[in-house]
Design goal:
11% strand, 364 residues, 2-enoyl-CoA Hydratase, Chain A, domain 1, ClpP/crotonase-like_dom_sf, alpha/beta, 3-hydroxyisobutyryl-CoA hydrolase activity, isomerase activity, single chain
Length: 364
């Protein structure tokens, strides 16, 4: 078990507390294993009726995977292959799958930063989940900023947001707040941080058969504080649908270039800083994921992440952002014009035969 994952059971609720505040609760392999182990144990425990996952810090729910760890182990071999990397991504994606199909109510309090791997342990699931946001929520899938793609099932949940919102969020890595998250279908209810203590008191006394109903009823009193219909994404939705349609990042950037609005010009400037290759790979991922189930998406992403480390783009992105902190990644290829279709498609080539894929046992 991990020192950074604290678990307890009270009033038939299993609590998972992420407690690695100095790293914004970035997920290590030990943390992934600890969360997986307790969820598997509670799944068969009749005394646990629901799961509530939250953070010990108001700054972050979970900022994602531990990218410095990715860099250290990924640069240890000439090909970027590492047994620790293999284990991390296999077990993280298996955890995302476990959460997605968890048979008990799974409630995530996404207070503060929730990005990347943090989205994977909060967005997964449909039937039994409840996702809470606050005024502190800073949500994103920012992987293109480090030469990666929106993994942890990101292809699945981003491709199912209304219109082209997921395409916009995946290609830019932009941060959104509570109202935007509610509008995009990436959150369910809003509760201000000033009321979290009252929420926890409610949980300690709850007698409802479905904890989610009790939380929704509690949150209803704060709905006017984060109206999805007045969010920034709501006002930009038509523009985003137009600008981010199609299967070509170059075409998207051309549309942005021709649009003189502040939004289009800001978005273009943002995308010009991202990895041209991984933006192209991400767009292909999102288009493919639209018609794939959760298990198939995770297996595809598991292949993709191996290709990313072998290519080296993610290692260069992490170097520039976290290691040397020069914020000047040398992307390869350097421009969208140099990204070939064959190179993009190579990121989707099978790494293992079907019978040997590390996530072959996942089923929807």
């Amino acid at each position: 078990m991990s020192d950074y994952v604290i678990t307890s059971v009270s009033n038939s609720i299993g609590y998972i507390l992420l407690d690695r505040p100095k790293a914004l609760n970035s997920l290590s392999l030990d943390m992934v294993r600890a969360i997986s182990a307790i969820l598997l144990r509670w799944r068969g425990d009749a005394e646990v009726k629901a799961v509530f996952i939250h953070s010990s810090s108001e700054k972050a729910f979970c900022a994602g995977g531990d990218i410095r760890f990715f860099y250290d182990v990924g640069t240890a071999t000439p090909t970027g292959d590492s047994a620790l990397l293999e284990d991390f991504f296999t077990e993280e994606y298996a955890l995302n799958h476990l959460i997605h199909f968890y048979p008990k109510p799974y409630i995530a309090l996404m207070n503060g930063v929730v990005m990347g791997g943090g989205m994977g342990i909060s967005q997964a699931g449909e039937t039994c989940r409840l996702r809470i946001v606050t005024e502190r929520t800073k949500m994103a899938m920012p992987e293109v900023n480090i030469g990666l793609f929106p993994d942890v099932g990101g292809g699945h949940f981003l491709s199912r947001t209304p219109g082209e919102l997921g395409t916009y969020l995946g290609l830019t890595g932009e941060i959104i707040g509570a109202a935007d998250a509610l509008y995009a279908g990436l959150a369910d209810v809003y509760i201000p941080t000033a009321e979290i203590h009252a929420l926890m008191t409610l949980l300690s006394k709850n007698t409802a058969s479905d904890l989610r109903i009790a939380i929704r009823d509690f949150a209803a009193g704060f709905a006017d504080q984060a109206k999805p219909e007045t969010s920034r994404l709501a006002t930009l939705h038509n523009a985003i649908n137009h600008l981010f349609a199609g299967n070509s990042v170059s075409t998207i950037c051309d549309r942005l270039q021709q649009d003189s609005s502040d939004f289009a010009q800001h978005t273009l400037a943002t995308m010009q800083k991202r990895s041209p290759l991984l933006m192209s790979v991400t767009l292909e991922q999102l288009r493919r994921s639209k018609n794939m189930n959760v298990s198939a998406c995770l297996r595809m992403e598991r292949n993709m992440v191996r290709h990313c480390f072998r290519h080296g783009e993610v290692l260069e992105g992490v170097r520039a952002l976290v290691v040397d902190k020069d914020n000047a990644p040398q992307w390869s290829p350097a421009t969208l014009n140099d990204v070939s279709e064959n190179l993009v498609q190579s990121f989707f080539a099978p790494v293992w035969p079907d019978y040997a894929h590390p996530l072959r046992h996942l089923q929807d």
